[in-house]
Amino acid sequence: MQQADRTLAAAGLILIYALTIGFTDNFVRVIAVDGGLWQFHLTRSVMAIGLLLVATPLLKLNLRPLRPGAVAARSAVHGFAMLVYFGSLAFFPVAVVAAGLFTAPIFVLLISHFAYGHRIGPWRILAVALGFVGALLVLGPAAVGGASIAALMPIAAGLLYAIGNIATREWCEGERPEVLLAGFFLALGLLGMVGLAVFALLDPIEAEGPASFVLRGWAMPTARFLFWTFVQAAGSLIAVGMMIRAYQIAEASRVSVFEYVILPCSALWGWLLWGEVLSLRALIGMALIFAAGLVIALRAVQPGVEPSPTASRQ
Asked: Of 5, 34, 154, 252, which has the most beta carbons under 10 Å away?
């Protein structure tokens, strides 16, 4: 009964995580009205690191890494993943981008097999096939025909997350969660700073439409931009804290299945906030991705072997 209770508690924590992330990510479109991707990440990282420093003495955290080089490399990979993820939100609803992100376990399987020689059984091969078809359905004809770079961005985010999740396991075993969290935000802040510097030097003509979020340099921050960026920073820290706690109190193979609740949560917030209704094709694709993740998690040989689908999602 105790194990069942802990699993139920973990499910509740993951639900809070999914609802929080689904809500905050839906307001990236509001942030995009007043600022660009690079300024958003720099500002968000400064806010998040500030909150983390305040929390460190209160929660008795330790931000000293055991292997600084490994943490830096892992943080860089996840930083690029978040650039692609949030850039995708300028083009697609959150639920669609989240579906692309949740292809990460599929890429983890493929990379683990081809790079590390891990065996993939028939059930996991089926999961890869299901997830691949699901991703194509969610992203639509543009992804199939390669006609749109934007259509492939959510899948690229999933690939980068997969590499980062493998790095977490292979390079950063034993590192404290707060160390990886701080390293991630530091790397993303540096990437935002570099992006702003490049745009300041090149001074390109500002694009129109969704692409303007990605191709915009520094702009005087408005109160709305600062408010929703702070909500993003605080929401990320709280949500990821919930996720980490869930993995501490229950088996990882069980918790990783619960994480897929973020797909309907993102779709729910998109509908409540903006009236977005996903097509039947996209819903079927999301169901296939969910099924693929379920198979991967349930076929884990040992508890904790398979990483969280979004173990690094901040």
From this structure: 154
